[in-house]
Write a structure and sequence with these properties.
Order of helices and strands: HHHHHHHEE
Helix content: 55-70%
Shape: elongated
Strand order of the largest sheet: 1-2
Structural class: mainly alpha
Number of helices: 7
Radius of gyration: 40 Å
Largest sheet: 2 strands, antiparallel
Number of strands: 2
Length: 231
């Protein structure tokens, strides 16, 4: 009796499924760009690198600094108007004059007569035998007519001096604020460059240590797993 041997058929090879889309790799950040962005606008370089919490901090500092500067400038201008008006009312100064040297002399001398006499003393000391040179020396230094002044009491004079000191102090605070703003820009620029370097360093390490797991079908219905890595 003849027997028919059955032949077992092998399963067809398994087709690999679609590969998942590769994750977007972080791009390296330009250290130079990060530096100059923050040098122009504090926090901009940090935003470019992706460190937004630093951005908020530096922008808040910048806003506080310039708010302080604007307020100090307002105070300085207000007190300057006050001491100019006060000097015109109490000492007879020329309120149309706005030059700082004039009010510095009003601050230092109780009246223009003493001030003018001191200029002549200096002229005679410098040019003892030359009256023409003495006159030329004092020509643009003397105050007369509408520019003359005289404080009636020391109390009024001190009041004027106090207002002027307040004004000058407020204007100096504006200068200090400008310096603080410059420092804020520099600190942010250095910090942004540091963060960009750190970002690039981490990206470089991950790239060197990347590992991939690939599945390959084999004849006979098997599958091969291949692990590859870059170190």
């Amino acid at each position: 009796m003849a027997t028919q041997a059955g032949i077992a058929k092998a399963d067809p090879p398994v087709e690999p499924g679609p590969k998942p889309a590769p994750a977007e790799k972080p791009r390296p950040k330009s250290v130079r760009k990060a530096f100059f962005l923050s040098l122009a606008v504090p926090g901009a370089g940090e935003y470019y690198v992706g460190q937004k919490r630093y951005t908020r901090g530096f922008l808040a500092s910048e806003a506080m600094i310039w708010s302080f500067a604007l307020f100090s400038r307002y105070q300085g201008s207000m007190w300057r108007d006050d001491y100019i008006s006060y000097a015109a009312l109490e000492a007879g100064t020329n309120s149309a004059r706005r030059d700082d040297l004039y009010y510095q002399n009003v601050y230092e001398w109780p009246n223009s007569i003493w001030y003018n006499e001191y200029q002549w003393v200096e002229a005679r000391d410098l040019y003892p035998d030359d009256p023409a040179a003495q006159a030329a020396y004092v020509a643009d230094k003397l105050y007369a007519g509408a520019d003359a002044w005289e404080w009636q009491s020391e109390e009024e004079w001190n009041r004027f001096r106090s207002l002027r000191v307040k004004s000058e102090s407020a204007y100096r605070r504006v200068t200090y604020a400008a310096g603080a703003a410059l420092l804020n820009h520099l600190l942010s620029a250095v910090n942004a460059a540091r963060l960009a370097k750190s970002h690039n360093s981490r990206h470089s390490i991950k790239k060197r240590m990347a590992m991939d797991l690939n599945v390959h079908p084999t004849w006979g219905g098997g599958m091969a797993f291949v692990l590859t890595g870059r170190f």
